[in-house]
Design goal:
Helix content: over 70%
InterPro entries: AA/rel_permease1, AminoAcid_Transporter
Shape: globular
Radius of gyration: 23 Å
Protein name: APA family basic amino acid/polyamine antiporter
Membrane topology: Multi-pass membrane protein
Pfam family, one: AA_permease_2
Subcellular location: Membrane
Largest sheet: none
Distance between the termini: 70 Å
CATH architecture of one domain: Up-down Bundle
Number of strands: 0
Structural class: mainly alpha
């Protein structure tokens, strides 16, 4: 909720595709735009590749596509998600709302059903406490933040949303509160249905808890739920990636040809590039390493957005802000300190991949800026022959 404050302020004030890319340009200029764009592109495309692969793994558990192989099934899924997004913004948005609503209804039904059953028998067994110190704390935070990952993606759709000044803050805070309530309800239901020892042994707690309700079909039902759940996230990830690629092209970092919107409101060319790039990551296995690097990079984006909000409060105090962080500057610096603390925890928890991610983005950004500077300073080409030449 704290981290969402600057997202809500800037998303409502600067409702543009690519979200943080537009915030960085307004607050810090061209160089930071390049860094932000490369960070978001790498994070989003590698995430889509991973999610498509996980969806294919869930299908394999159901016996679907085993003869083709997980990579081939994941590629087919990406093609299908491309088609669903290419149909048009309204249709793809409606599909996403339907899939997300289905997920929510299934989880609510699970909570009700588990609480309607006798709970796990009480036990005097006490599990040993794990004393992992700050590294354990960092690992726990990583899991929690991964579960909520994507809450800020709505700012990437500023140009697709009617009345973004009101809709974006409502979506951010309402979404976080709603998901928090749903997640806590599911966890309470699982703690009621399973003993701590059973939870510790379980690789799929929801399916194990539902066995008392569904018998041997519990695993199949929740594997099918996994297909719809992760598939919906994959579809949304590809939709978000297309907006990031579109914004990157509009800034001139990628060819301007990709900064085109079809008559149905879809950045079709950017969507195609995002799909092909995700497939490339998928088959190269590069997404595995990139996902490991993206934890610190994602937290770095939170820091950037907080800094941009503080900077613009100073440089553009008269900017129209349909939503403004309350009690500023106290809240602004509180959010920034919170984001910096989490960034330090995540880097300390996994310093190697954090450093790899930062070096990769820095190298790509420096290479692009150097190339752009070289082209800009090159002598103009001779277009006419000199007299008598």
């Amino acid at each position: 909720m704290l981290a969402a404050l600057p997202y809500a302020e800037l998303g409502a004030a600067i409702p543009q595709a690519g979200g943080p890319i537009a915030f960085a340009e307004r607050a810090f200029g061209r160089r930071m735009v390049v860094v932000t764009a490369f960070t978001l592109v790498l994070m989003n495309l590698s995430s889509v590749a991973l999610l498509a692969y996980v969806t294919a793994e869930f299908l394999a558990r159901l016996g679907v596509g085993m003869e083709l192989g997980t990579g081939t099934v994941a590629t087919i899924l990406l093609v299908l998600f491309f088609v669903s997004n290419a149909i048009g913004t309204r249709v793809s948005g409606a599909i996403q709302v339907a899939l997300s609503s289905l997920k929510g209804l299934v989880l609510i039904a699970l909570v009700i059903a588990l609480f309607a059953q006798p709970g796990a028998p009480s036990s005097d067994t006490v599990l040993p406490a794990v004393n992992a110190g700050w590294y354990g704390f960092g690992a726990a935070l990583l899991v929690i933040f991964s579960a909520y990952s994507g809450w800020g993606d709505v700012v990437n759709y500023g140009e697709d949303i009617a009345d973004p000044g009101r809709a974006i803050p409502r979506a951010l805070f309402g979404g976080i509160l709603g998901i928090a309530a749903l997640y806590l309800a599911v966890n309470l239901a699982l703690l009621y249905a399973l003993s701590p020892a059973e939870l510790a042994r379980s690789d799929f707690a929801a399916a194990d808890a539902a066995r008392g309700l569904l018998g041997s079909n519990g695993d199949m039902v929740f594997t099918l739920f996994g297909v719809f759940s992760v598939g919906a996230i994959t579809n949304l990830g590809l939709m978000t990636s297309s907006r990031v690629v579109f914004a990157t092209a509009r800034e001139g970092i990628l060819p301007q040809w990709f900064a085109h919107v079809s008559g149905r409101g879809t950045p079709l060319r950017a969507l195609g590039l995002a799909t092909i790039a995700s497939m490339t990551f998928l088959w190269s296995d590069a997404y595995i390493a990139l996902i490991a690097t993206s934890v610190a990079l994602a937290q770095g984006v939170f820091v950037l957005v907080a800094l941009a909000a503080i900077k613009l409060r100073r440089s553009e105090p008269d900017m129209l802000r349909p939503f403004a962080m309350p009690f500023f500057p106290l809240t602004g610096y509180l959010v920034l300190g919170f984001d910096l603390l989490l960034l330090a925890v995540f880097v300390a928890q996994d310093p190697f991949y954090s450093l790899v991610g930062l070096v990769l983005v820095a190298g790509l950004s420096a290479g692009y800026l150097l190339l752009a500077h070289t082209r800009k300073s090159a002598p103009a080409a001779i277009t006419e022959l000199p007299p008598g030449g």
